[in-house]
UniProtKB/TrEMBL annotation:
Catalyzes an amino-pyrimidine hydrolysis reaction at the C5' of the pyrimidine moiety of thiamine compounds, a reaction that is part of a thiamine salvage pathway. Its EC number is 3.5.99.2. This is Aminopyrimidine aminohydrolase. Pathway: Cofactor biosynthesis; thiamine diphosphate biosynthesis. The lineage of its organism: Bacteria, Pseudomonadati, Pseudomonadota, Alphaproteobacteria, Rhodobacterales. It is an enzyme of class 3 (hydrolase).
Length: 228
């Protein structure tokens, strides 16, 4: 079995749980509370920067020119496409540059981007590419699922349409092909590491939406609870 076939089978329940999340149900029927989307879009802009950094790092260590071109191009492409989407929605939902600049990444966002960056910096290209793949795969999966159910006047229509476009499908296919190619060339040890990296990032995709739905930030220690 190819890498993609293997990990989709191994993570089928998790992917189904992601499609069923309240955040994604509310996105599909257009009832996602404004406050939740504002929180999400700021965190997603932070995520995107970390994701692009991880791709650039992975590109620098890739085993051949085709992989370097794909990873470096994908990082630049991601920043262009998703930044436009964020700018559109930040404008629509009244999120200002000051709001973004004064809102740090949440634990869910920070953990996910830190994982991607450290994997790209310290592990094999196979592992890095496997860690980066759920970003593409999960959004394609959720995008198609929501698209079939979403109402025409849904305020999140532009968001949904981005992830069912032919361009996005082609980008997902290229990421799957690179993962399959590196998996086919990898040792059993690296293959296991690639499957684990994919599962971990998929779980962090779940955690990212869960955190946004609950408007989670950093815990704030109670100074009165500190022993004298
Ligand atoms: C937490 C989180 N995960 C994945 C994506 C989707 N995404 C971000 S960059 C990129 C590559 C090309 O557009 C894709 C698919 C997101 N927005 N937020």
């Amino acid at each position: 079995m190819s890498f993609v076939e293997t990990v989709l089978q191994e993570n089928a329940d998790l992917c189904a749980a992601i499609r069923a999340m309240p955040f994604n149900r509310a996105l599909a029927d257009g009832t996602l509370p404004t406050e939740v989307f504002q929180h999400y879009i700021i965190q997603d802009a932070h995520y995107l920067e970390g994701f692009a950094r991880a791709l650039a790092l992975a590109a620098s260590a890739a085993p051949d020119a085709d992989a370097v071109a794909q990873l470096a191009g994908s990082g630049a492409g991601a920043l262009h496409v998703e930044r436009d989407l964020h700018a559109h929605y930040m404008g629509l939902f009244g999120v200002t540059a000051a709001d973004f600049n004064t809102t740090p990444p949440t634990p869910a966002c920070d953990h996910y981007t830190s994982f991607l960056i450290s994997t790209a910096a310290t592990c094999t290209t196979g592992e890095a590419v496997a860690a980066l793949l759920p970003c593409f795969w999960v959004y394609r999966d959720v995008g198609h699922d929501i698209h079939t159910r979403a109402a025409g006047d849904n305020p999140y229509r532009a968001w949904i349409d981005t992830y069912v476009s032919d361009d996005f499908d082609a980008a997902v296919a290229r990421s799957c092909e690179l993962s399959d190619r590196l998996y086919a060339q990898a040792s059993d040890t690296v293959r296991g590491q690639m499957r684990a990296a994919f599962a971990k990032s998929t779980l962090m995709e779940w955690a990212f939406w869960d955190s946004a739905w609950h408007l989670r930030g950093w815990p704030t220690p109670d100074p009165t609870g500190i022993a004298a």
